[in-house]
């Protein structure tokens, strides 16, 4: 049962994140330390250095031979359900769109497992629950964040390709009418091969696309043959990886300070994000868990970890690729504020049903 000491441990884990957030916000809003261009550079530092090293560091220290594969299968089924629903919505609804499908996937499936999930899971169900949450984090980084990175890169590459072709046409004399450009737009669209070639080249230069994969490969080798990472190598990784979460929250504070309002996306989108994060995600996870036959504490941990606050990494990607960063940042900030009472409520309901 959760006591006040357990709640305090969760608060202790969360408050430092808000300190970093406030420092980032104040450095632009109050003290004018950074320009918008410098803020973009800081976000890029986080996206290409601290977060990949943070991801590699925690993936390299898991034991892949002790993973709970039914739990991982349930998580995969829940995300496939979300993808299927969003694909149907984007194709069949007049309000559906590819861009909003990407953002909705982030909101409903990607969680902040390590900062909030680990202390909370330990307080609720002990060390076995912590192991499950960490396993879910590793799979999220290897599969689902990489998938998110892929679709974001496809979107940006396609947009850049089309924009460059349109600019080339307009430089020839925009005397060309808009109608002419629209009629000829099909000829400027890249082929599937050229698009994917450009995307894979971009991903090959992005350390986020392989940091966790390299980490889990090392984990397999280290646990199979009982190797330890050389101290000089581990120290080199830790010096940057320890700053991963803090600098990500600092970057989010910078982003907030550049907006006109703290709640940059408005009330309706904030509520939309909270519904996806704390209702749609756990509901899909419950379906996936029942489908593979999870029961007992493993079932309860699966549902609770799906209701954790929004992933900070998803904001860094949204900011870097220019896709609804205001919505994701609001989901991270408000999600961490409301997550504790909501997760305790989930815990109480699941215990009552048991």
TrEMBL record:
Write out the GO cellular component annotations: membrane
Keywords for this protein:
Auxin signaling pathway, Membrane, Transmembrane, Transmembrane helix, Transport
InterPro entries given in the database record: Auxin_eff_plant, Auxin_Efflux_Carrier, Mem_transp_PIN-like
Region span, Disordered: 163-186
Entry annotated with the keyword Coiled coil: no
Bilayer topology = Multi-pass membrane protein
What segments bear the compositional bias annotation Basic and acidic residues? Answer: 169-182
One of the GO BP terms on file: auxin-activated signaling pathway
Question: What subcellular locations does the record give?
Answer: Membrane
Any Pfam family: Mem_trans
Principal localisation: membrane
Keyword Transferase in the entry? The reply is no
Domain of life of the organism encoding this protein: Eukaryota
Q: Which residues cross the membrane?
A: 6-25, 45-62, 68-90, 97-120, 132-152, 210-227, 239-258, 270-292, 330-349
Q: What does this protein do?
A: May act as a component of the auxin efflux carrier.
Show the NCBIfam families listed in the entry. Answer: 2a69
Membership in a protein family: Belongs to the auxin efflux carrier (TC 2.A.69.1) family.
Record's protein name: Auxin efflux carrier component
């Amino acid at each position: 049962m959760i006591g006040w000491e357990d709640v305090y441990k969760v608060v202790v884990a969360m408050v430092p994140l808000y300190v970093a957030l406030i420092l980032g916000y104040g450095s632009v809003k109050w003290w004018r330390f950074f320009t918008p261009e410098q803020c973009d550079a800081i976000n890029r530092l986080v996206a290409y250095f601290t977060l990949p090293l943070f991801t590699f560091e925690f993936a390299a220290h898991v034991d892949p031979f002790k993973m709970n594969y039914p739990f991982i299968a349930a998580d995969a089924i829940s995300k496939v359900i979300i993808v299927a629903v969003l694909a149907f919505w984007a194709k069949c609804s007049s309000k559906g769109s590819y861009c909003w499908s990407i953002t909705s996937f982030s909101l409903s499936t990607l969680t902040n497992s390590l900062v909030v999930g680990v202390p909370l899971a330990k307080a609720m169900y002990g060390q076995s629950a912590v192991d499950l949450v960490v396993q879910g984090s590793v799979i999220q980084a290897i599969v689902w964040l990489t998938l998110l990175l892929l679709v974001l890169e496809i979107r940006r590459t396609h947009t850049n390709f089309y924009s460059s072709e349109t600019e080339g046409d307009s430089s020839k004399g925009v005397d060309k009418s808009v109608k002419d450009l629209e009629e000829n737009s099909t000829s400027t669209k890249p082929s599937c091969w050229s698009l994917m070639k450009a995307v894979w080249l971009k991903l090959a230069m992005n350390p986020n696309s392989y940091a966790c994969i390299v980490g889990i490969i090392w984990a397999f080798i280290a646990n199979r043959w009982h190797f330890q990472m050389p101290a000089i190598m581990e120290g080199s990784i830790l010096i940057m990886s320890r700053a991963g979460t803090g600098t990500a929250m600092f970057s989010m504070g910078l982003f907030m300070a550049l907006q006109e309002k703290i709640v940059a996306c408005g009330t309706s989108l904030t509520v939309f994000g909270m519904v996806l994060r704390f209702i749609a995600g756990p509901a899909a996870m419950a379906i996936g868990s029942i489908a593979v036959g999870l029961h007992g504490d493993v079932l309860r941990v699966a549902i609770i970890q799906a209701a954790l606050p929004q992933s900070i990494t998803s904001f860094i990607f949204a900011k870097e690729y220019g896709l609804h960063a205001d919505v994701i940042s609001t989901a991270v900030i408000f999600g961490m504020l409301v997550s504790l009472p909501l997760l305790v409520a989930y815990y109480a309901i699941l215990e009552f049903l048991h």
